[in-house]
User: Fold these one by one.
Assistant:
Number 1:
Amino acid sequence: MTTRLSLEDDVRYIKGVGPKKAQILRDVGVSTARDLLDYFPFRIEDFSRVTSIDNVRPGDDVTVQGRVVSVGFVESLRGKALRVGITDGRGIMYLVWYNMPYLYKKFSRGQWVLASGRAEWRRNSIEMAHPIWKESPGAVEVGPIIPVYHGKASLTSSAIHAIISSALSRYGGLIEETLPSTLRERYGLLPEREAYRQIHAPQSPLLWDRARKTFAFREVLHLQIALSLMKKESKALSAGIPFHDLTLPTRFLETLPFRLTRAQARVISEIREEVSAGKAMNRLVQGDVGSGKTVVAMWSLLAAVSSGYQGAFLVPTEVLARQHKRTFERLAGGLTRIGLLVGSLSSREKQKLLEGIASGDIHTVVGTHALLEPEVKWYRLGLVVTDEQHRFGVRQRLTIPEKAGELRPHILVMSATPIPRSLALTLYGDLDISVIDELPEGRKTVTTRVLGSGERAVAYRKVREEVQKGHQAYVVCPLIREGKTGRKAAEMVFEELKDGYLKGLRLGLIHGELSKDALDEEMKRFVEGKTDVLISTTVIEVGVDVENATCMVIEDADSFGLATLHQLRGRVGRGDAPSYCYLIASSAGATSCERLRALERLHDGFSVAELDLEQRGPGQFFGTKQHGLPEIKVQELGITAEIIVKAREEAERILRCLENGDAGCCDAEYSALLEKVRQRFGDLTMYARSR
Ligand code: ADP
Ligand code: MG
């Protein structure tokens, strides 16, 4: 029997892959030959430049070569260490592996090796711990360039490399060429087949870079095309539920204790236009913390209820679910029957609620991911609002079951993570985007100051002052308990402040490990003004809203990203009083302070996001969680903002071209590309079709 090779072949048929390795590979998301070829190295070891051992200084990242002169073990604090001495005739260096005794048999005297890694001064010699290494037939002029992969368990980088090499020689010829030649020429990209060779077996560092750029471009191009297709198909194929009756949301606005900002009014009218026309809504509302997204969510949920449908309000934490329910009851209590579905309900409470949802007795349900469980049967679900979308994945938020024969619910997602516009169009390419780019009137900017850890007194003096004025404050810490890194833990800070800077004040403590009751109780006490200062981990990050809180101290602020800090800071400055935020930098490093200082100047989330993009690249905005699509290897491939923008433009151009049947566009190539994208993201576009 002859079997035809296919890129979809199971990895276990590839030479060098036994059942055990196949399992590990599956654990890292590799199950076919194609997946294997798409398992990209994140850097290369360049053995093409070999340093002579006598020129190596501790701290250098170098490649050396030498003949093995000794192989033995030494005891060390880190465990038993294999120590292999090598010489190139000009110096001696030791290669060291801790707790990997089985490597012993790989070395024998006289054998030549190339080794690459960081040199250190230990045990009175130059050592290199856990180097990347390779046997070589003898002294070489120019060594190979070896790609380095993320390994897992016994599957080391070099084992992966070996497997991929054999996959490449067997399957390399099957790789489709779907990158249009126009793009290759315009951006200096390689043909795909060549790119696979150069990324896994580079002939030069320069070619490796070009291969990476090729894949970076391809990934974004594919993603963008897939998202555009999803958007188009879901628009074309699914009519939405028309919300005809807007009595309730109108009454809600009339009784609201404030006037909508222009931006809120605009976004509400965008939503109204879509839902009342019976178009299927798939919309992202982006707005800085405090811009008033909840009101927009409530308006929309009431529009569903008013028209005889149910609304689901999905939030990432129980604290937030409870808060939203309270807000709902305060502002629209008489208008809709509201249920709260969270994991910690007793089974009787839950049963009752589920019955209410199934019978349609309960109109609006606020809840955590418990809302997504299959046991929740809706009577007539018309709208799903997801708050703080960045905490969920797309797939997850869409698993709310639909009843056969009924129109699918509208989808509205809210995000307080401002994404630079250039990225939002890619990241959320399947959604329409509404932006609330204005804060309610009278909102003051939060005066922000960066302090060294020696200046904490300044911050806590302010906290006391604010409390004396009748206000409240937050203290935020990165971890719950003292971790190995020495970061301040909420519990420790609490103990310290109680008898120190904040002695005599009423302090509360919350973190994610508290029981639901304890957490609830603490939160309630703070909301009711019964505690002055709430010490917490980032559980307060999402959406907690206490107007009387005017001061925030963030310990170890340099362990957070700027965007997170900005979101945390948004918890204060919600009322009329001036507000303050102190960022305590734990490391004295000037660069980390400098990075934080940007927040002293910048007060809107979009500027903070742009800066984050500039400083740390687009990776942070592209977590898989954000879009829920098959992983895009932003970090491994070094995808830059520029590539994202360019690839998006090209994707749009290609789709336009195909749609209009423009003369002179490379029709055949573009159709092949489209086909390829459908193949790759098939489940997604199918999903778009089915909904
Ligand atoms: P976020 O966008 O961060 O979710 P919220 O919806 O929690 O913000 O709103 C923050 C605060 O601003 C809440 O106390 C809310 O009642 C208030 N608020 C919302 N819209 C307005 C408005 N138009 N005028 C005044 N206050 C508003
Ligand atoms: Mg909110």
Note: The two ends are 42 Å apart (CA to CA).
Number 2:
Amino acid sequence: MRPRIFLLSLALFLLSAHQLKAEDGYRLWLRYDKIEPEERRSAYLQQLGQVFIDGDRPILKAAGSELASGLSLMLGQAVPWVQEPGNAGGIVACVIGKSQAISRLISEEDAKELQPEGFMLLSRDNQVAIAAKDDKGILYGAFHLLRLIQMQKPLDNLRIIENPKVKLRVLNHWDNLDRTVERGYAGFSIWNWHELPEYIDQRYIDYARANASIGINGTVVTNVNANALIFRSDYLEKAAALADVFRPYGIQLYLTARFSAPIELGGLSTADPLDPQVRQWWKDKAAEIYRLIPDFGGFLVKANSEGQPGPQDYGRNHADGANMLADALEPFGGVAMWRAFVYSEEEPEDRAKQAYNEFVPLDGQFRKNVLIQVKNGPVDFQPREPVHPLFGAMPQTPLMMEFQITKEYLGQGTHLVGLAKMYEEILQTDTYAEGKGSSVAKIIDGSLHGHTLTGIAGVANIGTARNWTGNLFGQADWFAFGKLAWDPYRSSADIFREWAELSFTHDPGALAIISSMLASSYETCVNYMTPLGLHHIMAAGHHYGPGPWVKEMSRADWTSVYYHKADEQGLGFNRTESGSNALEQYSPGSRARFADMEQCPLPFLLWFHHVPWGHVLPTGRTLWEELCQRYHQGASEVGRLREKWNSIEGHIDGERFRQVSMHLEIQEKEARWWRDACLSYFQSFSKMEIPPGLEQPKQSLEYYQSLHFPYAPGIRPRW
Ligand code: BDP
């Protein structure tokens, strides 16, 4: 009885605390607002009066307490929960309603459809049951049920079965131990290493709840530009304290491994992956970590990229490096996630070709517990890139997708850009690797090449900002990442609508507007930043704002001119046979889409072709006219985003309405800045007039070039 009494009072406390909450975005999509009107609440109460949960393991406790507190808040009265052993042979269950043996609700046939971490929601006779093969499934089912109620869906005759399609669904935090966040636009790191392991911030728990609610089951808490200090025993204890918080929410902790740690921390003279002492150092380190964190996920590694140490420093290759770490982790069930974002010492003739050149020859040489983590495009999280040619080109190796949730190149902390649209575009791209129908989603979920170890990573946009993501709409990107990680075939339209309803309102008109803003905003951003396949033309270092003129850097492939190749003849990077022939890295089916300048889809035109300024495109406009048109369209669509937002004033709370309005104002100003700066610059090559009817730049090119922002956020300290 004791736990029940405790939880009742907890629920009552939450009920009263809830009345005082400001609309500051802290609650994310887990708002659990009281259901109105009262009749609807009473109808739910008929079905949801009490929660019975089948056991008292930590994950089940987390599920039970989330259900009890969520239901209490939404139904306006305390909903108790009790732990009562079920009776369903191998199935874990949770029944909401009257006490009843679960076996009466779930047939053996039903149970067969369940996979690890999957869940089933069933209802009959005023009872709702969640069934799963494991505790995590119950947790995910509990959040799903709460979401249905939040959206006021009927619960009669439910029969929902969901199994995750991807095994490792992981956030990557680019957080440094000093609490700065590389490419972070939402304040500082939420990990307060200095006060860990003793001080457990409530935010850690709410972070875990939020992630579990969207099916995320892993988190890499440290930056890929790694610091070996995390492996010192005091830091490992701090990491273990975080892992303890995450465990009841089904989240495994991972760390980034600095390849030279055996030198920096272990005092060895080398980090050569074939050196026996080095190999032993990693084995010992892995054993030490697993003593503290028995469910430790493994390592994420950035090696031989942007100055990071790696196996090539010793004449070894990526497989040598990854396998050494995989061997150390293997006895404990851990995995090595080895990144394909590589930058060699030498400047390549085309940077977009490098990862493929280094990794494809190694296909088949990686250990079973290695995943290669590949960014969605071959250059670097640009607003739009064609899919990375590695997808489909390494059939014997599990490839993980790496998306960026933080908006380094997509407006950073201030722009509203619904990233689900971009994720969807990439996941649904056909690679033609095994003929037509070889979508990226099928590579990620392992179905195309028969892999069972599968994964997807998202570079987090989370920080100490009260609303977690700084820009409120950044929450939608975090949410969408989780949803697509669980099911990479889901439509962005569905996700936008669900997020909007959970976060803002049930008003159908307002919902339609918020969803449509999210849906159109990605294309809008591409238009005002990098239309027609342009890429890597942002300012250097902090990457804030336009910088197509950037040309003096220590490496040519860090400059903008390297990528856009503007000259008096035209614009764009020729990656066809007559140019760098990066196209050759794609399967014949993909190549055929892009090879011919006349046929190439316009979103990728300047990615693959150097196009004469006067060349007439299928739109009937010349390249120059089309470029002007798109930049203008992008900027004016931000104006329309603002109008749409203004039209829902009064339909949502004033506090969040104002926050978003102010950010949209910045976005419009910056969209015009992008447009005017880029067109002024490209005009100095095209020597053509901006077509009549379109706005002329307000300032000279020199003015745009003179702008400097030494304190723009998110920068890497040493740049
Ligand atoms: C680039 C970022 C840099 C990261 C790098 C990476 O500018 O800060 O370290 O990606 O992914 O986009 O390793």
Note: The chain has 22 helices and 16 strands.
